[in-house]
Each structure stands twice: as C-alpha cells, then as structure tokens.
Amino acid sequence: MNSMLYPKTSRTRRIVDMNGLWKFCFDPESEGLKNNWKNGLDPKRTMEMPVPASFNDFFTDKDSREYTGDFWYETSVFVPGEWEGKNIGLRFDCATHRAVVFVNGEKIATHEGGFLPFTARINKVVKWNEPNRVVVCLNNELSYTTLPAGSTKVFSDGTKMSKPFFDFYNYAGLQRPVRLVVTPKDEIVDFSVKHSLEGSDSITEYKVTADSDKEILIQVYDENRKLVATASGDKGVIRISNVRLWEVRDAYLYTFRILLMDQEMIADEYEEEIGIRTIEVKDTDILINNKPVYLKGFGKHEDSEINGRGFNLAVVKRDFELMKWIGANSFRTSHYPYAEEIIQMADREGFLVIDEVAAVGFFESLMNFMEASTGKQTAFFSREIVQTETKANHKAALSELIARDKNHACVIAWSLMNEPETTSKSAVPYFKEIFDLARELDPQKRPRTFAMVMNSTPNACKCYSFPDILSLNRYYGWYNRGGYEMMEAKEAFIREMDQWQELGLNKPFLFTEFGADTMAGIHKLPSVMWSEEYQEEYLRMQFEVFDSYDFVKGEQVWNFADFQTTEGIMRVNGNKKGIFTRNRQPKAVAYVFKKRWENLPLNY
Ligand code: GCB
Fold first, then answer.
1. Which end of the chain lies in a sparser environment, N or C, as judged by fewer CB atoms within 10 Å?
2. pLDDT tens across 82-126, in order?
3. Among 530, 393, 514, which Cα is nearest to 453's?
4. In Å, what is the CA distance from 189 to each residue of 16, 102, 104, 115, 219?
5. Complex ipTM over 0.85
6. Which residues does the UniProt record annotate as the domain Glycoside hydrolase family 2 immunoglobulin-like beta-sandwich (predicted)?
7. Active site residue ranges
8. How far apart are the first and last CA of the chain?
9. Is the CB of 577 under 6 A from ligand 1?
10. Domains of the chain by range and CATH?
11. Using a 6 Å cutoff on CB, does residue 166 contact ligand 1?
12. Ligand 1 mutation target, pool 480, 513, 530, 564, most atoms within 8 A of CB
C-alpha cells in the first residue's frame, strides 16, 4: 500500500536524505528512453543540479531556463544490508510535473502531477550493501489534461515552449526533498482523526490503516510529553479531558503515537503532532471551535530568487515571521499544494490554510483574470478530454492532497479550483463530481470552496451553489476600471456585491484575491497606477466595500510577495502585486494592512 505519511525516523523507521547535487540533463529529442538512460545518463551531456530546486533560474542562457520537454536526474543511494527484510521506498515530495522512476535500470514508478508526494517501493530491485542507481525522467509540458493546465507550443526547429493558462512561471524539477524511507514489513500506512467537543473535553474519532493484523495502540501526549489518553484497535474514540484546543494564532499540538504491537514488542511506531479543533460553516460564519473567525492574510506562491519554486526552509521561515508581524491569520496555497513542511509550520503557528489543488488554468488564457471580464468564453469544460482525462487527473490529485493533509488542524478548507470557467453548463457535472469527492474523502468534512474569477458573477456563474464558502477573486480598480476610474470601479463592485446579497445564499464569502501591481519605490503624488500610493488607495477602496457586507468573512490579498511569471507585456519581471517584495521586504502598504489587521476585533 502506498503510504502518504510524512517520512519520520522512529524506533522502527529510518530515513536517508537524498538531497544534494544530482546529475542532470535535458532530453529535447526524447531519446533517453530508447537510449537506456535508465542505466545511467550520458556523461557527455550531463551537468550537476541541486535537489531540491527548480532547474530554471540557475541557467544564464534562455534556452535552458525556458526548457520544455523531458529532462533527467540521476543519483545513487547506498542501502545497508542490515535493512534487508524491511520495506524500502523512495519518497519524492514532488516531481514537477510528471515522473518515471528507475532504480538499477528497472522502472519502479510513474507519477502524474507536480505538487504531491509519492513513494516507490524498491524492494524488488534493491542491491543490499551497494550503491543503487536512481534515475528519474521528468517532463514539464502543459496541456488541457494537466494540473495546472496550459499548452505547449512547438517552434519550427522543434523547440518547445510552455504556454500556461495562468501567470506564475512554470518552474519545474525535483523541487522538494527526496528521501529513502525504511519501514517495517508490518507497517502503519495511514491514520485519520476527526474531532468534536463535549464541554471541556474533546472526542477524537480515529482510524488506523496498517499492512498488518498486529494489535494497534494509540497514545496521546501533551506538549510536556505527559500521557493524556490511550486507545486500542484500528478505529475508535479518544477522549481528552480538559483539552487544550488548537486556536487561531495560539496553537497547541498533542503528539499522537501510533504503535503496532507484536506481543510486548513494538513492530512499528509513528508519531504525529495533531492540533485538536473543530471547523464548521454555519449560516454566514466560519466557526473554529464554535467561534467565528475572520480570515486575514494572503494568496501566496512558493517562489523565491534562484531557487524558483524549490523548497527553501529559510524563505518559509521569513514568510511566517512577516505574516505574524503584519497581523495575518491565514493563507491560501494558491495555486497548488505546498510543501508539507509549510503545512506543519502553519499547524505550529496557528495559521488557517485554504489548501488548494493545482486545478488552475481551467480557462484557456494566460491572462484569464483579465479576459474573463471582457466576456471571453473558451468552452474549457465542453472539451471531451477535459471531462475524461483532466477530471481523472483532478480526482487523483485531490485524493492525494486529502490523503496527505487531512489531519492538519491548520487546513480549514479545500480549494478545488482556481478561476475555472463557470459560465457554461458543461462545468456543472464536472464540479459536482469534484465537490462530491472532496466531501467523501475528507474525514473532517471540511468546507469546500473554489476561487471565482471576475466573470463568475451571480448572473453568469453556473456553479456557485457547489461551494460551502464562496471565494471571490476581484480586481475592481485594477483590471476593471483602474486609475482615475476608481470611483466607477467601486460602484461596479458594490453592484455585484448587492447582487450576491440579493441571492441570499446564507454562506460566508471570502475575498481570495484583490490587488494592484506596484513597483516598490515608485512614488507619485497624486497617485498613478503602479505607484505605492495607488496600491494604498486601491486597497482602502476594497476595505470600504468589504466592511459594508456582513457576510464577508475574510480577505486574502493578492499576493503576499512579488513573484515570477511568464514574461509578457503585462508583467515587469514578474507579478508585482506583492505586499512584500520578492526579497521579502515591505512595500508602504504593508503598514496599512498591519494597522487594519491588528485593529480588527480580537475574536478575529
Ligand atoms: C488572478 C489569478 C492569479 C494572478 C492574478 C493577477 O486572478 O488567480 O493567479 O496572478 O489574477 O495578479 O493577475
């Protein structure tokens, strides 16, 4: 069974870190398979490549940076003979966007989707007490069926180019850690928890899946490592008296220790830190532990200088410090699942996370956010291939996401798509299947949402009945009537909000995007678009609108930081809607947010 558990060392489990410099080469002719590169890359064309990282921004030539097609990585890992008799797996935290893995020349795994982990069991091919050759063929091409979606253009000389249906740069590579994971034959494969409250106690329904019929024990420890509850069996309930709940920006994590027992001997041991909280949508409120919350925060990206989308714990740490400084309490993992370490940090810091699957680009346009408001239609969901292959990939990615993140206290909602084209009826059955699947798979039955593009208005959108929380991406005063037209932008914004109000949906609304591109350091009096002054004026207008509708339960500005995009006339070396620069320094408007967010009522 393929386990999505985060790799950990315990008395029964071992990990070998495989990060570092790997061999790397491009394969524009897709000749690697025929030429048996699975047995070793051609030394004449290989170079060294750091893992984890995106390959793109290391290069000084454009062909390499923009490379689209197959590309290969190779390393070797020594597997000690003392692990004979254990399960040996190779765990890729992500391989963007698809991978075929070979060990000692044998194909052992394939995986589609570049933002979720997979583990390949290598027992059948492993060589004990020897280095084992690991070769991975990746591919970063986009199509209608990929998550994220896009297209691939081919020039007259055969060179390929990514044409995303989204603006963030199509970074690729082994962007997150790779590890050898050693687990016992009798193995804990998965577990899930669902909490409810009874007075000052918590009741956790749990379920453990194991590749074994050995006895299962659960022990729960508090933060002082004091045992507070125990249970046995593969499912049941755990009561914690006088529970210390996980609260927004005031986290508390119990350690759930799961044991497989062979008489007195421990056959497998796995521990995870779990925050105990409830999450519910009631009327227009989002309730955490039965208390209403207002989301303050950001749409983000995994994006930084040189590393691209490569996992960088130092940047992650800085981001959390900035989010705390500014008074935020939440973020959306726009537009793909983030590294597990980020979700763990959110658990530890008490942030609320809207966890998004990489279903972005479901509107055939690089600039969908602009073109949507022109009334353009691309009939994305009318394509048969979308209703078959894209949907299958979407379901697989969603299943992996929920399997990976379902126990995290910080995850309070699933975002099932970003800015899909909801104006045609063909979207409806697709939405139904995806929304139903999320409900079915999540033991905690978290609210589901999707981020709605500008033209998903009450009049035009065919899918607004699906989400439990409505998430609006709105750019009144930027893409729509920017600059001196701001007053009209505000009127149009209010008109739309009034229409939502009239529908009486009785559900919470969030703004998951609003923002204005701003070049840090450009000052202009009076303001012009792109100046720091305009960003501030634009945002003050948004706040006035948000604050006049009581069903608005949160604001996540676009974007936390400036980020890299595909080049084009709309972007000046990237998207500049950051409240912070790409180097994580504040623009002037950061102080406006800090003041607003720190002064919203305490309960928020
Ligand atoms: C959007 C997209 C986001 C873009 C943003 C923008 O609507 O969801 O990915 O980056 O607009 O800044 O244009």
1. N
2. 999 999 999 999 999 999 999 999 999 999 999 999 999 999 999
3. 514
4. 19, 23, 26, 21, 17
5. yes
6. 189-277
7. 419, 513
8. 42
9. yes
10. 14-183 (2.60.120.260), 187-277 (2.60.40.10), 280-599 (3.20.20.80)
11. yes
12. 513
